[in-house]
Each structure stands twice: as structure tokens, then as C-alpha cells.
Amino acid sequence: MERFRALPVTQGDSFLLETDDKVVLVDGGISATGIVGLIGATGLCRIDVVVCTHADSDHANGVLGLLENSAAEISEVWLPGDWTMRLKDLCRNPVEFYIEIAQDCSASNAVKLDSVVPKAAEQSDTEGNDLDLTGVAAAFEDDFIPEELPIDELTWAELGLVSSWRMRQQPLWIEAVQTAARIRRIARLAQHRGCRIRWFDFDAFDKGASAAGGEPFLAPTNSVELTHTTLRRPSALEFLHLSTANRRSLVFLSPGANVRSDILFTADSDLAQEIPPLRPGSLATAPHHGSEANAAAYKQLKAVESLVLVRSDGRFKDRPGASFKEMAATKFCTLCNVSANTSQLKQAVVLEFNGSWRAITPTIPCTCASRA
């Protein structure tokens, strides 16, 4: 019997799928420590595939923590192809990379990564960015990822920052450095654990290529698995912006074949590209935690008959939005947003498939529509 769980991470997404012969974890939530206990409580000692859909902290921090501290055996780690664009620089010359971040931040008018304006692809330099990604990521030689850089020891002066910029733009710098360190540590930890690392490129799909790669039990719907890449070489700040952009979140489908309905892991995607047809009774994770900014994604999901929709989130007044609440689906939340019940605790949503998806007690259905 197959089981699907939305783990009660403090904030963000973390979904666990157990089939008869495979275990898949998609994202790990915002806490690098909490995910370890949640996985431990399941009794699982092996995870076949750990997916990180994008570099946002509420998806990626738990992946980092799992790789760093979990006793579970992890066979493969699937990561965004965007990360390979500057990973060699970030890992081999981290001090220079952080100085480049500082210089980019100083010259930028952005205050957060999501407000950075990427340059056109043809303006970017691709020289020296060729990576062989076959096998266990051949780009990771023994000296490819050195020991962790003590970021706190770098001073503002060493990074070429002026005080006026520091006072005005510090949040952008902090977010950029944290994101860069997160990407670097996940890649390093996966390599040091001996996991097979596989990369999935959104850009190729966005430019017209058919989704490809993965495995029969889990396949990309908006990316192409990379074996060798000469991706463009954006600036440090643009690289970090692309790595966290919600629309570039990797989306994966676990097809049910004759065993069960399909499962679509949507992450924070807007599903701007048409999704594969899903069979009646299929399960989908709620795009971007039910955010109304992803209303277009919910329009696509409305076409799925007898859909089961699972939403994971923290406490936010504006989520879920109207599009989620108006869905004619069987809905479950790790935390429903009901103004009359501010003391509500997060729940683990546990569903089993036995002809259809059924909640395992004490999982309760979504009550977000009753919000005042």
C-alpha cells in the first residue's frame, strides 16, 4: 500500500512518498534540524531520492539538514540545473564569489533577490563554464568543494562595501550570502555522502525542449535532466536570483500506472507550461502553499477530476488565497488558516492509497474555506 505524507515542517514544503519499493522526499522545509526528527519518526532508514526543487530556504534548508545529520541512507539527490551555472566558482573560489556578490549588491537597486532583474541570456559569458555531470557528478573532484568558509570572519571592508550601501542594502547582501552558502553546502554534503547527484534544467524546457530524464517512478515535467552542460555564466547576484525564482521551481510527476492515481509535486511553480494530463483521483501538492500569486496554476489543476490537493505552509495571513479555497477538490493542509482558531497546531497529513487516497487518522480535512 502506498503512503503520501506532508510533513509538519515549521514553514514550507516537505513531502514524502513511500511506494512498495521506493521512498522519495521532495523538499525539506525551512528548518535544517526539524526535518531530521520528522524523518526519524517515520522509521525509514533509506531514502532513494531526495529532491530540492529550488534554493528558497523554506524548501532547501531541510534538504541541507537531512544530508548533514540524518542517519538514513540516501541514494540520490536531484538538484536544479540552474545551480551548475556558477557552482564551480562558488565551490573552488568562495571568497572571490562572495566578494562578487558584494560588488553586485552594491551596484544593484534591488532590495531582495526576487526583485533582481536578470540580464538577457545572450549578454552572459559562457566561457569556462563547461561541466561534466555524468555519474556521481564528475565535476566534484576531491578538491572541488573545500571545507566550509567561515563567512562570519569576512569583514565589510574585505568585501569592498561602503557604509552607506551597507545601511541601505544589507538585507539583499544577507539573503544572497545565505542562498549561496545553502547551494554550496547542499552540493558539498551530497557529494561527501556519496550520493548520486542529478541535475534538472528548467531553461532547456522553457526554450522548447521536451521534459526528459528522471526515473519511471518520478519524472520531471518542466525540466530536462543534464549530463553535460555549457550553461551561461550569469553574474553572482543574477545566479542567486535564478536559483530562488518561484517560476523556475522544478515540478515532478510520480505516475500511478495501473497501481494508483498520479502524484504531481508542484513546489512554488506557476505551472505556466501545460502540465501532463492527470487521471481522476490524482493528488497534487498546492502550488506555492496556496498563494494567490499562483492563481494560474490552480486554473490548470481545476481540470483534474476528483483531485486531492495537499497544502503545506506556515502561518501567513494572506495564504491560502481565493483560488485555493475555491477549488472543488478534497483538500488537506498541514496548517489551515482559520482566523477563529489561531491556536491550531500543525498536523502531519498522512494519506494511503487503497483504490483512492484516504486520510489516516488523526489527519483532518482542510477548513480554510471557513476563514472569516
Write the layout of secondary structure elements.
Blueprint: E1 2-6, E2 15-18, E3 23-26, H1 34-42, E4 46-51, H2 57-69, E5 73-80, H3 87-92, H4 94-107, E6 131-132, H5 163-192, E7 196-201, H6 202-206, E8 219-220, E9 224-226, E10 228-229, H7 236-244, E11 252-254, E12 263-265, E13 283-285, H8 295-301, E14 308-311, H9 322-325, E15 330-333, E16 349-353, E17 357-359
Parallel strand pairs: 3-4, 4-5, 5-7, 12-13, 13-14, 14-15
Antiparallel strand pairs: 1-2, 1-16, 2-3, 6-10, 7-9, 8-11, 11-12, 16-17
Helix pairs in contact: 2-5, 4-5
Q: Which descriptors would you attach to this protein?
A:
single chain, 372 residues, alpha/beta, Metallo-beta-lactamase, Chain A, nine-stranded mixed beta sheet, six-stranded mixed beta sheet, 18% strand
What does this structure look like?
By secondary structure, this protein is of the alpha/beta class. The protein has a domain at 1-71 and 245-372: Ribonuclease Z/Hydroxyacylglutathione hydrolase-like (Metallo-beta-lactamase, Chain A), CATH 3.60.15. It is 26% helix and 18% strand. The protein contains nine helices and 17 strands. The chain has helices at residues 34-42, 57-69, 87-92, 94-107, 163-192, 202-206, 236-244, 295-301, 322-325; strands at residues 2-6, 15-18, 23-26, 46-51, 73-80, 131-132, 196-201, 219-220, 224-226, 228-229, 252-254, 263-265, 283-285, 308-311, 330-333, 349-353, 357-359. The strands form three sheets. It has a nine-stranded mixed β-sheet. A hairpin with a 3-residue loop joins strand 16 and strand 17 (357-359). The radius of gyration is 20 Å and the shape is globular. Residues 122-128 and 134-153 have low confidence and may be disordered.
